Amino acid sequence: MTQPPKNLQTIESHILDLQELHPSASGEFTGLLNDITFASKVISREVRKAGLVDILGETGDENVQGEVVQKLDDYANNVFMRCLGTKGQVSIMGSEEVAEPIFPDTSQGSGTYIVVFDPLDGSSNIDVNVSVGTIFGIWKKKNRLANVGPEDVLQPGRELVAAGYVIYGSSTMFVYSAGHGVHGFTLDPSIGEFLLSHENIKTPFRSCIYSVNEAYEPKWSPEVREVLRQLKYGRDTTSTRKDAPGKGAGMTARYIGSLVSDFHRNLLKGGVYLYPPTLEKTEGKLRLMCEAAPLAYIVENAGGYASDGHQSILDITPTTLHQRVPLYIGSRDDVLWIEKMIAEGESSI
Ligand code: AHM
Ligand code: MG
């Protein structure tokens, strides 16, 4: 007779266990995480139907970044806006798809939490059946009693109280951290529940995978080009450096072009993802608040590191909701080595 899996913990019970670590907790945070898992189940259901119902392709609009909006982007964004903070826990939301911060009707700006999300990252891949994902970060309003203000929204990643992502891949997985480890749950579609499948994820300190869009190489700075050269061909034998990754041998490349998918693979196997600045995109492409900071929080809680090339992503205080940032994220030693290479390259100019 088939035995049931040993660990049948649902994400809801995992979140409730977390609540017990904070005896004064009101349950608001638990409710918010439950709203997010519910929204991601709804999005997962729709992503799985893509190709069968009229949800593929473009809406004909452009978003705040000037990018083409896919129908599923739009759908996922509406699901998040509708599902989050139903009990008034959220004072303000920020979405990659919406220019201005959003005040949910349920709280009129008085809720405890601020949620910033990318409802469907990598959406240009949807039409060709490549995995896409959702990314979210949760911050707390600074002063519970005051009206929510810009300083509440524009907080550094270091102030995150939780972050996570959902990957709609060969299975749907929800990965989150609220500062007590990083935990992954896989959606069992037959019962509609996320079940604990990856407890306390730790990412390798050093890796043999790099993920970058190498087509931009001619547009990178000389020091970033040198980083790539050494990642690819191995440690420079003329150098006395002992800490270069891929000692004597190059690393292997894996680039899906869907951040959540590339990040998830590197988190589990070890790897470093790079999106450096280019001549045209001097701040890179990725958004600090809805992409880089939440993933930086996850990776640091799993033992990795994320940098903009000079400092930890988590230490950057945003000046705008849609600010972009260069991103180097993944295995700790590799990202620290990249930071050092960039600093040395810049100081020798
Ligand atoms: P999006 O938020 O508009 O989907 O863009 C972000 C995506 C990431 O998922 C991916 O890593 C990156 O853009 C790929 O960019 P490029 O095509 O320049 O390599
Ligand atoms: Mg995105």
Description:
The strands form three sheets. This protein has a seven-stranded mixed beta sheet, with helices on both faces. It has a five-stranded mixed beta sheet with strand order 11-10-12-14-13, with helices on both faces. The protein is globular. It starts with 10 loop residues before the first helix and ends with a helix. It has two domains: 11-198, Fructose-1,6-Bisphosphatase, subunit A, domain 1 (Fructose-1,6-Bisphosphatase, Chain A, domain 1); 209-347, 3-Layer(aba) Sandwich (D-Maltodextrin-Binding Protein, domain 2), CATH 3.40.190.80. Helix 1 runs antiparallel to helix 2 (28-49), helix 2 (28-49) packs antiparallel against helix 3 (71-83) and helix 5 (222-233) packs across helix 8 (332-347). The chain has 349 residues and is of the alpha+beta class. The chain has eight helices and 14 strands. The model has no long low-confidence stretch (mean pLDDT 88). Strand 10, helix 5 and strand 11 (252-253) form a beta-alpha-beta unit. 2,5-anhydro-1,6-di-O-phosphono-D-mannitol (AHM) binds at residues 67, 96, 118, 121-123, 213, 257-259, 285.
